[in-house]
Sequence to fold (355 residues):
Amino acid sequence: MKFNVKIEVMLKPGHSDPEGETTARALRELNYPIESVSVSKVYMVVLEAGSKAEAEKMADGMCRRLLANPTKDDYRFEIRETR
Amino acid sequence: MKKDEVRVCILRVGGTNCDAETKRAFSDLGVNAEIVHFNQLLKKRNLFDYHGLVFPGGFSYGDYVRAGVIWAKSVAAKIGADLEKFVEKERPILGICNGFQVLIEAGLLPAFDGVSEYPEAALAPNIPPGYNCRWVYLKRENNGKCVFTRNMPKNRVIKIPVAHSEGRFLFPKEKENEYLKRLCDNDQVVFQYCHSDGTLAVGEYPANPNGAFNDIAGICNPQGTVFGLMPHPERAFYGWQLPDWTKKGTVPAFGDGKLIFESVVEYITKKF
Fold:
C-alpha cells in the first residue's frame, strides 16, 4: 500500500528560534500585528508499507534517525493512504 | 612511527571546503595527507590505512535537513562499525566546522558512553542569526586529555576564524546541567570563546559569535582522540593568513592553528 506522510519538525518549547524572531521582526515592519513566529519544516513523504501501523513506525524512525535532533526538535506526522 | 610514515585522510563530499588547506597544513608538518572522496574511501581505500581522519568544513550536501546531518547518517550507515573501531584504536578524528556538526550528528561527540545512536547535543542556528565570519579568541580549557591541544598550555588564548551559521552548541534543556557536568568531569571541554585577555565571553556577542551554551567552541570525546570545533585552525596555520600582519611590519611564520596540527601529529608519532 502507498501512503502520503506529512512530517513536521519543530523546535521544542523553550528553545530559541532566531529564524522565527527575525521573520517576526520583518513582518512587524510590514505593519502586521505579530506577537510571535515559530518556524518548522515540513517533509511530504510518499512511501510503500504493508499497513498504516507499519507506515507510522517507519515515519517515527525517519524522524528519530534523521529528520529531528532530539536535543532541540519535536516532530509530528500525519499519514494518509493513497493510490 | 616517523613523521613520513604517518598517513592522514581528509574526507570530502559535495559541499565540503578547506580540504586543500588542511592537507597543506599536515603536509608542511611532514606527514602524508591525502584528500579522499567519501565514495573513493568506500570503493578503493581502507580506513585503517590511515592513522588520522579529518572531516573538513563546508556545507556537505547543501546542509539540507540540518548542517552536517546527511553526511553524518551516510557515514554511520556505510562505515559506522569501522569508525567505532577507529575510535577504539585511539586513532584521532578531527571535525572542523561542518566536520564538527557531522561528528555531533553521528554521535561521535560528545559520546559520553561511546558512540551514541542519536545525537546528544546540537549545533543550532546562530544567535544573533545568520552567517558569521570573523576572527575569534579561544581559551584552551582542556586539562591535557585532548590529543589535539597538548602542544599548548592550559588557559592559552589563541586566535582563529569562524565561518558558519549553525554553530550554537547546546544540550537538551532538561539535561543541560547533567551533561555539562559530565563534559567537565571527563575533561571534554577543549575550547571556550573568550576575549583577547582570556576572560570568557559569557555568551556576549561578538566574542561568543553564535550564542553557544557555556561559550563552548570545541569538545573532545572522553578518550580525547575525537575532537570537533567550530573555528577553522587550517585558516590560521600560516602567519600570512592572519588578518593583522600587515600592520606589524613583519609577517609571523605561523598562526595559532599550527599548534593543533602539531599536537595531533606528535600524538600519532608517539602512539603508533
Remarks:
- The helical segments of chain B are 19-28, 38-44, 69-88, 98-105, 176-185, 245-248, 257-271.
- Chain B has a mean pLDDT of 96.
- The interface with chain A takes residues 65-66, 69-70, 73, 105, 118-122, 124-129, 170-173, 211 of chain B (CB under 8 Å).
